[in-house]
TrEMBL record:
Ranges where the HTH tetR-type domain occurs: 18-77
Stored Pfam families: TetR_C_43 (PF21597), TetR_N (PF00440)
Gene Ontology molecular functions: DNA-binding transcription factor activity; transcription cis-regulatory region binding
DNA-binding region: 40-59
The name this protein goes by in its record: TetR family transcriptional regulator
UniProt source species: Nocardia tenerifensis
Alphabetic keyword roster: DNA-binding, Transcription, Transcription regulation
Record-linked InterPro entries: Homeodomain-like_sf (IPR009057), HTH-type_TetR-like_transc_reg (IPR050109), HTH_TetR (IPR001647), Tet_transcr_reg_TetR-rel_C_sf (IPR036271), TetR_SbtR-like_C (IPR049445)
């Protein structure tokens, strides 16, 4: 027979482990944005407030950590779409805020694709990215088109690719502001009345 206190303690440990993992992923993403994917693991541990052993317990290799950060960021972006539709004043506002989150994701992912491109699992990871985010973008575009805030002929993958292309090179030229260009792109989606 299982003691209820043992089951509660096990659930508590699992919840703590999940929180630690989420904290590690958030810290790793922040460090990757600031210092690149080659940043020392000790910097990630310091940012997360944990020991290096905790990182290696969750992510035995740097590649495991990079893939986990990538997936974590995709999930955060995917989950934000419906939440923004429910909380924003209009579908167009929700789309704009989601595009900003997508830009944040693209900035975080800077360098991740280069590191992972030689990995045979990268194609699967890219397919995961498309499978999770294209439908969210489509939902936001459909809602904004149905409310007659944007043109109805915008394809989600085209928009995402356009945003991605505008983000290329932002880290190489301080005079180039990809966010400004993306803002102009999103403004151009508006329906002309």
């Amino acid at each position: 027979m299982v003691d209820d206190s043992d089951a509660g303690a096990t659930r508590s440990r699992r919840a703590d482990a999940l929180r630690n993992k989420q904290t590690l992923l958030d810290a790793a993403a922040a460090v990757f944005v600031a210092s690149g994917v080659d940043a020392p693991v000790r910097d990630i541990a310091a940012k997360a407030g944990v020991g290096m052993g905790t990182i290696y317990r969750h992510f035995p290799t740097r590649a495991d950590l990079i893939v986990a950060v990538y997936r974590h960021q995709v999930e955060a972006c995917a989950e934000a779409g419906p939440a923004l539709l429910a909380s924003c004043a209009s579908p167009y506002a929700a789309l704009g805020r989601w595009i900003n989150l997508f830009v944040d994701f693209l900035v975080t992912k800077h360098g991740l694709a280069a590191i992972l491109s030689g990995d045979p699992g990268f194609a699967t990871l890219h397919a995961y990215f498309l499978d999770r985010l294209v439908p969210v973008c489509a939902q936001l575009l459909t809602a904004a088109a149905e409310s007659e805030e944007i043109r109805p002929d915008i394809e989600p993958l085209e928009l995402m690719r356009g945003v991605g292309n505008l983000c290329i090179g932002g880290d190489l030229d301080p005079r180039y502001d990809p966010r400004r260009m993306v803002e102009l792109l999103v403004a151009g989606l508006r329906r002309v009345r």
